[in-house]
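INTERNAL AUDIT FORM
Audit reference: QA-55
Scope: verify that the stored structure record matches its stored sequence.
Auditor: D.O.
Record contents follow.
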Amino acid sequence: MRSSIWRNFDYSLFIVTYALIFFGVMMIASATNGAIAPELISRVPNQIQYAIIGTFVMFLLTFIDYRILGAMHLWIYGSLIGMLVMVFLFGQVGDGGARRWINVGILIQPSELGKVLIIITLAYFLSRRYEQMDKISTIIGSLLHVAIPIALIFLQPDLGTTIVYIVLWATLIWAAGLRIKHIGLFFLLFTLLLPVIWGGMASYQRERITNFITAESGEQEERIGSRYNIRQARISIGSGGLLGKGYMNGTQTQYRFLRVRHTDFIFSVVAEEFGMVGGLAVMAGIGFVIVRILHGARVASDPLGSMICYGVASMIFFQTVVSIGMNLGLLPITGLTLPFISSGGTSLLSTMAGIGLAQSVIIRQRRFA
């Protein structure tokens, strides 16, 4: 029985995932080439370390029946809230004054790991109420389910990850069968909360949004410095041309004109060194991963499995669109990493855990999919 289950393991998803991770390590090495700051020098070995840990987590989650994880939803949800509270009590402050990390031998960002945890718990909540989606109480219950972690993450402050949680909630309730009549209610609720959200943002978060809106107005010259990164990103992407300047030969990258190049603007490094072809190849690889996970949703044996796959695919898709969009200047800077490629240990760990969850659903698919 067990061997027949593992026969359904999606090897193409596995291979493309690790090809992207390997390429990501290469690009981080290029982005930090010649660095003298210890924090930058350690980026490559740290990414490899988290990739190894992520491999163990991925296979562990693949091995564990996702339905068992669903049955443990209360423990998982409590662990998520507990970790987020620990950030406020013992968290380490990073750049910009945000408190997002805790040290457990290695630095982890609970809000990143929480993406996978909230997918499990919210998917279980909705799968138990799959035939009650016409009731407003079900929708409100799902909203309350994510409201506590969203509030804790927003206060860190971490606007980008907050938005990811909102997108995960919207994706899963839509997949569960959201009724059209409820959409207007949510729009009204969002409109009423918008002033509160704006007032609760850190000053640099509001500045990023206003800079994006007034990007071409030229009316506020004092903000040119804060727009430096996005301008250099555009130059990097444009100068790469069709095939790029070659690995570790990007002038914007190697001469340090492009800042935060190993995390937020890693796509600009790819486009400068490997050109439009390289950028499209990365998008195609991530797109293939998303398609395979969505296939897992289609062949899943129950609503819980389907919604887990929808949640993981949504997480990867949204982060990819936002990350590439802000590199192109089409979206405000949010600090979201490019899945599999950007430097970020906990982000990589979370994404690999998501792949493991999807594989757990895929190998236990219904017999006649």
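Auditor finding: record pair retrieved intact. The beta strands are 92-93, 99-103, 107-108.
Action required: none
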